[in-house]
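Amino Acid Chain and Its Fold in Token Form
===========================================
Purpose: to set a sequence beside its fold so the mapping can be learned.
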Amino acid sequence: MKNVFIVSVFFSAIFTIAAQTNIPPVLETNAAQHAMSLQDCIQQTLQHNLQLQIQRYNPKISLYDLNIAYSGWDPTFTASGTHNHNVSGGGLGPSLTNTVPPSVTEVNSFRSGIAGASPWGMTYNLSGSISDSYGSSGGGGFEHSGGSVSVSAVQPLLKNFWIDNTRLVIRVAKNNLKSSEQNFRGQVMSAVTAVANAYYELIYAQENVKVQQDALKLAKTQLSQDQQRMEIGTLAQLSVQQDQSQVAQDQANLIGAEDTLSTDQNILKNLLTDDYHQWHDVDIQPSEVLSATMEVFDLQDSWSKGMTMRPDLIQARLAAESQGIQLKYNRNQLFPELDLIGTYGFNGTGAEFSDAFGQIHEANRPFYTYGAQISVPLGSIGTRNNYKASKATLEQVLLTLKQDEQSVLVQIDNAVKDAKSKYESVQATKQARTYAEAALDAEQKTYAVGKATTFEVLQYENSLTAARSQEIRSLADYNEAVANLAAQEGSTLDRFRVDLEITRDEDANIAVK
């Protein structure tokens, strides 16, 4: 058996971004714009996200629990020393004329031993004892010493042979440790996905502010031109009032877009830092632009990734394995106790301690026992029903696992279809924006020769603003859909080039490099 029972093992997790980037420190409370790529944001999150800092303690705690489970094999040392004083007998003798003195006995005894259990179920006890008796009896004195050393062992052959409670606890604790690692991996994936989506949302919010600014500028230009026409009498006041209404509406839209931008900034900052005050006045400027790179969506490949890479599925399989271990233990408890027993040791006697120790050291007065013992419970109602309950629980866990696997297939299928749909929307909204620009240009020319109304021009301006906003919205949606697909597959770390390595060291620290 390999020596896998480590007394103290600890965790560290090292995150490495494949494309290493240096993020300038954010120290100034009145800092201006701070350009960051998506990789910068991901690295900052892995280092400082509070949720990850909280979750990284779970594997460490699980490791400590595993070490506690190993304590079932820890040997126990015992030692004791006692003094016994006893006075007995004495009184009138047989002739009733003489007095018999009482017997006085003094006994000093010492005992020590080491007892424990082995990984294959055997219990052992290595012990030694020695005593020195002295006193007086019948008017004469006496002194006698004796002792022994021995080792005894009990080896189960049926119950507790292939698994006992200690091995059960250890194997379940190992699975819990693996499950905790997968849970932490899932938390990292969730954090990376959240940062990516927040980054895309921030780009959208900034671009949408620009769209609303352009819309407001266009409306103000229209208002200025119509005011000039009204002053020379070629345009009715109603048209100017329509322009003023449009300017007011565009100003409201711009205010709303700026508020959304501020909120999206804070959402991203909250993911990036464990000190929000430090980042409060920082204006994060994404250094990337929204684009729609056509992905090759292979449903079968995505399903394969999901079945093997999803942390929640791996955890579910570990839970089923742990329940299988519990079932194995409960089945073993159905057997009677049939144990081999044996003891071997050496005696020693003498007038003094040194004499007894000498004979024990010579090892020429051995003693031993060997045999077997059996214990058969009559009834075993509780044990049998424990086994039946654990068997039913395993069947339930396996069905739950199957349900989880099916849910993952459906989630991935939906995510693939959503990503494809979002890509098609990008192309459609791009065309819609192009057509809206052409339509507005044509309507403005028609309006310039007096064959269109201000209301009609404003409608085309609104259509163009909506088309521009929808185009960048669809770009953000597509990138988020691709990130969501990676999350459903369990391939988030690969997609965003995050290398997560969980190692064990003596410091029990999790560091990000």
Observations:
- The mean pLDDT is 87.
